[in-house]
Design a protein that fits this description.
Number of helices of chain A: 3
Helix content of chain A: over 70%
Strand content of chain B: under 5%
Distance between the termini of chain B: 14 Å
Helix content of chain B: 55-70%
Order of helices and strands of chain A: HHH
Structural class of chain B: mainly alpha
Shape of chain A: elongated
Number of strands of chain A: 0
Oligomer: heterodimer
Structural class of chain A: mainly alpha
Distance between the termini of chain A: 36 Å
Largest sheet of chain B: none
Number of strands of chain B: 0
Number of domains of chain B: 2
Radius of gyration of chain A: 14 Å
Order of helices and strands of chain B: HHHHHHH
Chain lengths: 37, 146
């Protein structure tokens, strides 16, 4: 694994993606409400 | 190089698909590069403990996320359902963050639908949002060629 600071940088860069995946798992009903698409 | 970069993202997207389909094994990390491992590890930990999730509004440089966003937008534009779901989740988070991220969430659909004009996409963007859109369009232009 990378150093803690590099790890933190990666986490912050991809926070949106990480949160989105977790949110999708906890709230699968959101998939259907994504009227954006 | 471009090929391996694309394969790297594909590996990450494949691992995310497995997680969405119920896989929670640490073996998902196998074969991924260190950046992707950090992302998958954070997702697995976030599923167990949502308070461990990193905060999206602390992003120091959102343009670093451009290749991943471009990959998802390109896949979604080709009808990839999982990419659409992931982008939708991200758009929802971005709209809550406000500012340029909220403006970006509003034009993601346009990019999925094929809009590549930076001028049109950036009408409501500040400088930070513009640099992110420009980075995404640059990445998309590489992907669109294939």
């Amino acid at each position: 694994m990378p150093t803690p600071s590099k790890q933190e940088q990666i986490l912050q860069t991809h926070a949106g993606l990480i949160g989105a995946v977790v949110q999708t798992i906890y709230h699968p009903e959101l998939n259907n409400s994504l009227s954006l698409f | 190089m471009k090929q391996s970069e694309q394969n790297g993202w594909l590996g990450l997207v494949a691992a995310i698909r497995k997680i969405i389909n119920g896989n929670r094994e640490n073996s998902l990390l196998a074969g991924l590069d260190e950046e992707d491992q950090v992302i998958i590890d954070a997702i697995l930990k976030g599923i167990q403990d949502p308070t461990s999730l990193p905060k999206a509004d602390q992003q120091p440089d959102a343009t670093a996320a451009a290749p991943m966003l471009a990959q998802l937008i390109s896949s979604a534009g080709r009808g990839d359902h999982d990419a659409v779901i992931m982008l939708g989740g991200m758009a929802e988070q971005m709209s809550k963050a406000g500012g340029d991220l909220a403006s970006l969430s509003a034009v993601i659909k346009n990019m999925v639908d094929g809009e590549r004009s930076i001028d049109k996409l950036c009408t409501r963007m500040g400088p930070q949002g513009e640099s992110l859109i420009t980075a995404i369009i640059t990445e998309l232009s590489k992907l669109d060629v294939h």
